[in-house]
Amino acid sequence: MSKRCQGCGALLQQEFADQPGYTPKADSALCQRCFRLVHYDDLKFSMKEGIDADQILHRIAAMDALVLWVVDLFDFEASLLEGMNRHLLGKDIVLVATKRDLLPETLSPHKLGQFLLQRLDQMQIRVRALVVTGRGIEGAQQEVMRAMQLAGGRDIVVMGMANAGKSTLLNSLMSTPQLTSSRYPGTTLDFNPLTIGDFHVIDTPGLMPRNSLLLHLREEDLKTVLPSRPIRPRGFQIVQDQSFAIGGLVRMDFIGVGRASVVFYGSDQLAVHRGQIRNADALWQRHYGELLSPIAQVPSPEHWKSTTFQASEEKQDIVIPGVGWMAVSGQMKRITVFHPHSVDIIQRKAMI
Predict the structure, then answer these.
(1) How wide is the angle at C-alpha 207 spanned by C-alphas 159 and 43, nearest 5°?
(2) How far is residue 214's CA from residue 206's CA, in Å, rounded to a whole number?
(3) Which phi and psi angles does 291 have, rounded to 5°?
(4) Axis crossing angle, helix 166-173 with helix 141-148, rounded to the nearest 10
(5) How far apart are CA 263 and CA 238, in angstroms?
(6) What is the pTM (predicted TM-score) of this model?
(7) Could you report the per-residue pLDDT of 301-317, keeping only the tens digit for each?
(8) Do 30 and 20 meet the contact criterion of CB atoms below 8 Å apart?
(9) How far is CA 58 from the centre of its chain?
(10) pLDDT (tens digit per residue) in 207-239
(11) What is the tens place of the pLDDT at every residue in 81-114?
(12) Strand order across the 234-238 sheet
């Protein structure tokens, strides 16, 4: 047996039931893992930490191909891996930004496009075309197909972070969808050649950010943290120092506050608790893992690190990769974030 699973790209095999590509049926088009994901939303085993992003990017860099780079607008910062500009140097790139429907409708296409191009410019990455789509890329198929013409007869390699929507996008371009898509990171397991119209397309495994909280969540907590419907911003007016708990995942302290506004953009299933800084330590000690939940599968908060940002006069976002961001404006001196060591908190110019 030497054919690949049409859903995830893994080589099909009948020997090892706990490894990628296993199928009990010699004539199956899907491995057992994909079959159970498609029909029962049952993750037989997780591969979210089993795929090396550097190896994938190295293989893509060696290909003479148009790069169709799929990014998740909700978790855009996770797409900007350190050193990615080196791997993409000299490449023809089409950026497809998915899940626009999760963001507030008040965000204009012009402002969103300007934000994306400015962030890419800061990363020294140039793109030849930009396509913005909803979760199911409704209405954008023709725009994506036109952008794919830039390949000029070359292969098209599709890359992006896990859960960015690569498989959903490619399925929407096919007359008969065949790729496995799910909310679980690590669904696509190998380079998977496809034919879409006149194009030869290669799907690739989702890249895994080393700094995302998603890597440290239990699979059952993903439905709480990942938004499944349009985000409803949660705003707070503050006139003194305040502490905010984002579930049991992150603590944000706003210090030297005069009058300010903070707005959380994230899943409405994820609780945000606000309180005074002098009570914050006691709150975490008493309620971590209960009121403050979900929690990451990492050492408890007393072993976390802190990151401090100096407040800016212009509106800014404090981004928690995988979880969302806090938009901050007004009078304050600094923002201190307490978070697991493996997660990098990011300060950026406000998206919205």
Answers:
(1) 110
(2) 13
(3) -60, -40
(4) 90
(5) 11
(6) 0.81
(7) 999 999 999 998 889 99
(8) no
(9) 20
(10) 877 788 988 999 899 899 999 899 999 999 999
(11) 888 899 999 999 999 999 999 999 899 999 999 9
(12) 234-238, 260-266, 324-330, 316-320, 346-349
**Kind of pairing between the strands at 250-255 and 242-246:** antiparallel
Pairing of strands 129-132, 93-98: parallel
For 126-130, the CB contacts below 8 A with 24+ separation are: 126/93, 127/69, 127/93, 127/94, 127/95, 128/92, 128/93, 128/94, 129/94, 129/95, 130/94, 130/95, 130/97
Strands 155-160 and 129-132: unpaired
Residue recorded with tokens 């396509």:
131
Stated as kind and residue range, the H or E segment containing 225 is: helix 222-225
- End-to-end Cα distance, the chain: 51
Cβ partners under 8 Å of residue 54, min gap 6: none
CB contact at 8 A, 179 and 7: yes
pLDDT per residue over 10-62, tens digit each? 788 888 887 777 788 887 888 888 787 777 676 655 555 446 788 889 999 99
174 exposed, middle or buried (CB, 10 Å; 0-12, 13-18, 19+)? middle
